[in-house]
Design brief:
Elements: E1 8-16, E2 25-34, E3 37-45, H1 54-60, H2 64-68, H3 73-84, E4 88-91, H4 94-107, E5 116-118, H5 119-126, H6 135-142, H7 152-171, H8 175-181, H9 194-201, E6 211-214, E7 217-220, H10 235-241, H11 248-261, E8 267-270, H12 277-288, E9 294-298, H13 301-319, E10 323-325, H14 335-343, H15 349-361, H16 380-384, H17 403-413, E11 416-420, H18 421-430, E12 439-443, H19 448-455, E13 458-461, H20 462-473, H21 479-502, H22 509-521, H23 528-533, E14 540-548, E15 551-559, H24 566-569, E16 575-580, H25 591-594, E17 601-604, E18 613-618, H26 629-644, E19 650-653, H27 657-669, E20 675-676, H28 683-691, E21 697-700, H29 703-706, E22 715-720, H30 731-742, H31 748-765, E23 774-779, H32 783-786, H33 790-798, E24 802-806, H34 808-818
Parallel strand pairs: 1-4, 4-5, 8-16, 8-17, 9-11, 9-12, 10-11, 12-16, 18-23, 18-24, 19-21, 19-22, 20-21, 22-23
Antiparallel strand pairs: 1-2, 2-3, 6-7, 13-15, 14-15
Helix pairs in contact: 5-7, 6-7, 11-12, 18-19, 20-21, 21-22, 26-27
Function: 3'-5' exonuclease.
Binding site for ATP: 271-278
Protein name: 3'-5' exonuclease DinG
Length: 820
Amino acid sequence: MTDKNDRKYAIVDLEATSASSSAMIIQVGIVIIKNDQIIETYQTDVNPHEKLTQHITELTGITDKQLALAPEFSQVAPAIYDLIKDCVFVAHNVKFDANLLAEHLFLEGFDLRTPRVDTVELAQVFYPHFEKYSLTSLAAELQLDLTDAHTAIADAQATAQLFLKLKKKVEALPKEVLEKLLPLADSLLFESRILLDDALIKAPLLSKKDYVETGQLVLRRIKAQKDSRELSQDFSVNIALLGLDVREKQEAFAQLVEDGFKDSRPSFLEAQTGLGKTYAYLLPLLSKISGEQLIVSVPTKVLQDQIMANEIQKIESVFHIPCHSIKGPNNYIKLDAFAESLRQQHDNRLINRYKMQILIWLLETETGDLDEIQQKQRFESYFDSLRHDGKISKKSLYATVDFWQKSYEKAKTSRLLLINHAYFLERVQDDKAFIEKKVLVFDEAQKLLLNLENFSRKSLDLTYFLSVIQELSSKNLNLLEKRLLESLTFNLDDIVTQFHQTSKNRLPSQAISRLRQNLLELNLAELAPLRELFAEPFSEFWLSSEMNQEKRQIYLNAGRDDFLDFKHFLPEVKKLYFISATLDISPKVHLAQLLGFREAVFAGLPKAKTDSQHIWLDSTMPMLNQLSSAEYAQETVWRLLRLLRLGKPILVLFTSVQSMMTVSQQLEKAGVSHLTQGKNGSASKVKRKFEEGASQLLLGTGAFWEGADFVAADRMIEVITRLPFDNPEDFFVKKMNSRLRQEGKSPFYDYSLPLMILRLKQAIGRTMRRNSQRSAVLILDKRVSHASYGDVIYQALDKEFYLSEQKFTDCLAEIENFLI
């Protein structure tokens, strides 16, 4: 090895016959770097003397004919060894490339013992906010040249660019930060810490202009807000200033928002998907209000982050309006907890790498929101230990820089505040002044109903809590406490067993009485969460389950019989807007009524069909009540196999996890590659794999009906296996049905059926998010045309979509022509 001041790096990429350790090398690409300059490149094909698989040929573009003319590895081994023997070996996933090349060289008599550096792990540490770290993803994020991906020299050159960017970023770090990183750097793969060791020698001291050092931590210094600019009273002018084109429907909707501002009554506005409604309500309202605050509440944290990163960030950058997004405290890092974690030594390599990642992230984040760190899944429990609890001691070294405290204070002064429905309800319950006399917008307001219901419930992770009780039983308790704890454990185990065996989720009254009696006699602090769950006003109790990181979690839930009256829950505000794709749930049931508003202003735009999305109804699919679950799966799989021949990505939506898994099993038997929610990861994980092209077929349920947008594919097929009716046994559905009967309304025709249609429309809209997209939707549930209520569904869909009811073979032919 040469001196570190004269260090050379060999950036290597190999293409091979497979990803296994026994693979044969078929292509080598090498880029030599010295003094941050590329000084030499090398590339060669290698004849493996074996036939390539179709997958490898499609991935790399390398053919058997091409390799037949290439040299054997023994012929190129001396040149490769001479080129890299005195270099640091760098690769994107260095373990594979270095091991495979070293083994091939060893068989030719060359012993490669160079230090190794892995750019995957370095990118994970030094670019903590990226979602993906494949070379293709990093090339897009960092503008690396990767024009011929999966050829060895192109990948090596892109990796060389990545390495130089990483090296430059490390060398720009303040010395104080590097000194905190180095004790953790041995947890990096192989000799990847070389970059940090070399950087420390010439590292700059901390710039007080850019950073602030507090306690053990160095944080980004937040720059002062620029003076804000006034918006024009003309919507089209404001849109133009943002560099956007005015859309006719968007401008019309903005006028509805402006008109509503003149009326003190709540405004309920109906907005179709795709018209750009966020700008259409933000710009008119920001132009009208001066001293007041505009608060926008959205249903999920994911949507909150999307709007903040897109529409609001653009408004803030152009008009310099003070904008802020706030979530509940546990979304933010608690700096005291992280500082304590740094003081502790961990043997776990992954935790130490996460510590390094957070040290870098703290130099970049303005919010302290842990959702900015994308790769938390592998050790979520570590991040849970760093989450804020909403409390900060005045004696804390970090009191003045605490992210949650700063967010809380900034929320009071920002002209535009973005929040999510769940945190909004929690905050207003504790602090009515939070929204008094302000302008308030609820986006996707139809989801407020479920948020209100969840707000009036409690839920307990019973899987985790049973482990807490087990640990508690090992403590020094008196005999009576031990017996009572045994009884409590037995009763909880019994209801879980019954749930697994019978699928009945509701707790019988006898079980509730026994558990309440146990808790009444057991005055242990550790049981407080369970005691709160069984306290008044909760009267109904049930179990539910979900897959969490491939593990089945059981939850104990409690609910109350009455509904939260949202109108009376709110203090007096200046103006209320409720914006939704559908406000009239049925002729007799309106969202405003369900939220407690008797007086309101209602407005919307005429709905128009789009030519970019068509719906086909399969007339040859048997009625669901005529099929067993296995037969239903066979009919579905038969259709999916034929749709796959069209070569387009396919999203298949199920209303039942069991049905989804049965279809998945039959696809596996048929040897069909596919992704299944729960089986292949969480909803977000399988969606990401699907959009990256890991499979053309995705089976999903739950979140995919309303929360996942598919933007990447220009052409897509969506298959809806069953109409998404609510489970009639669901606690909320039963409560709503009881309320509607008391009001003389039909629970089915006035609520369940129209709500199902709304959910169906939302699902159809998931695969049509851009003007340039085309989406074919196939509905397999014949109730649309054969059930007594089918006409209601058909007419509702026909108002917004082009419908065609055909035999499946005819549907297939029409879908193929439509997606050309």
